[in-house]
Amino acid sequence: MPISTNNSTNKDFINRIRSKILKEYEKIQRSFVDESGLSVTTALDDSDIEKLVMQALEEAKVPISWRNLKALFQGIVGEDRLRRILNSLKARNTIAELTHTRYSLPKYVPDEELNKVKNPLAMKKIRESRENSIN
């Protein structure tokens, strides 16, 4: 399902994914009570955030814009950290970055947009996975 330019459809799409991400976030969030009786919640580490990003991209099944990713992760992780996580995943070719600052799992890059992938090794993964699915 491509993301529509219709604002309410886009909001529904973001809200659906965000609700699933928030549920997962609550599961992996670490809380404990210190000696004084205060409840303390620790920040998620980068590997936890990476898992949430991967889950969001899997759930979307289409490329997601930077703007929509910021909306998805608002209140979970700051923009700078989210950008760093995306760059790390992109550098490892785990995700594909497309033109117009959109991100996707390689398997969800539409055929007509393969030439818009900015990290070429991710394109290799895309082609290999599609060839394997044909055979």
What does this protein structure show overall?
The chain has 135 residues and is mostly helical. The protein has five helices and five strands; from the N terminus they run αββαβααββα. The protein has helices at residues 7-28, 46-60, 66-73, 79-91, 120-134, and strands spanning 30-33, 39-42, 64-65, 96-98, 102-104. The strands form two sheets. Strands 3-5-4 form a three-stranded antiparallel beta sheet. The protein has a two-stranded antiparallel ribbon with strand order 1-2. It starts with 6 loop residues before the first helix and ends with a helix. The relative contact order is 0.12. Mean pLDDT is 87; it is low at 1-5.
Features:
two-stranded antiparallel ribbon, Arc Repressor Mutant, subunit A, disordered N terminus, three-stranded antiparallel sheet, 5 helices, mainly alpha, 135 residues
In a nutshell, what does this entry contain?
This protein has 135 residues and is mainly alpha-helical. It has five helices and five strands.
Topology at a glance:
Blueprint: H1 7-28, E1 30-33, E2 39-42, H2 46-60, E3 64-65, H3 66-73, H4 79-91, E4 96-98, E5 102-104, H5 120-134
Antiparallel strand pairs: 1-2, 3-5, 4-5
Helix pairs in contact: 1-2, 1-3, 2-4
Strand arrangement across the biggest beta sheet: 3-5-4
Number of strands: 5
What is the CA–CA distance across the termini? 26 Å
Question: What overall form do the CA principal axes indicate?
Answer: elongated
What's the rounded overall pLDDT mean? 87
The CATH topology name reads Arc Repressor Mutant, subunit A
| CATH hierarchy class name | Mainly Alpha
Q: Which sequence of SSEs, written as H and E, runs from N to C?
A: HEEHEHHEEH
Low-pLDDT sequence parts: 1-5
- Class from helix and strand fractions: mainly alpha
Helix content: 40-55%
The appropriate CATH architecture is Orthogonal Bundle
Main sheet: strands, sense, barrel: 3 strands, antiparallel
Strand portion, in percent? 5-15%
Whole-number total of structural domains: 1
**How many helices?**
5
Radius of gyration: 17 Å
